[in-house]
Amino acid sequence: MENMLFYAHSGLRFLVLLTAAMAAAVLLWGWRSGRPFGGQSRAITSVFIGTLDLQVLLGIGTVLVRPWYGALIGHLVMMVAAAAAAHAITVYGRKQPDPRRAHLVSFFGVLLALLLILGGIMAIRPSPFHMTPGAGATATSTG
């Protein structure tokens, strides 16, 4: 069970990073074109936040079943802050009456969340693309 949660959480980060990059690109495009905030902008932002929320839930499950080590504190704080920033700033952005401002505020929400996500990954790994268990963790087999 612990390995399944760990690998699901570890692998989902790539989808989170991909949807963050896609959301940032769509929001920038919406800002530059001045089109109304909705449709693609709302959809990709929702997909990003949904994958981030799933990642947080898998992370909580992983923390509950795997060995604890000190670097996880930084990881947990950064990831919860990323989810909070993504939710709060993009909701604030959606409420803006000016569509260009709505796109720009939401873009900065996604960007801040992405930076916090990268910081959280770097708290336990040497790079965002490193695939082995974090420092101090022990890889156990289910024999």
The global form is elongated
Poorly predicted runs: 135-143
The proportion of residues forming helix, as a percent range, comes to over 70%
Overall pLDDT metric: 87
First-residue to last-residue Cα separation: 12 Å
Number of domains: 1
Helical run tally: 4
% residues in beta strands: under 5%
Number of strands: 0
Return the string of H and E elements: HHHH
Instruction: Report the major sheet.
Output: none
Coarse structural class: mainly alpha
Instruction: Report the C-alpha radius of gyration, rounded.
Output: 17 Å
In short:
With 143 residues, the chain is an all-alpha fold.
Could you walk me through the main structural features you see in this protein, from its secondary elements to its overall organization?
This protein has 143 residues and is an all-alpha fold. Helices cover 76% and strands 0% of the residues. It has one domain (2-124). The protein is built from four helices and no strands.
Write the layout of secondary structure elements.
Elements: H1 2-33, H2 40-65, H3 71-94, H4 99-124
Pick out its properties.
143 residues, mainly alpha, disordered C terminus
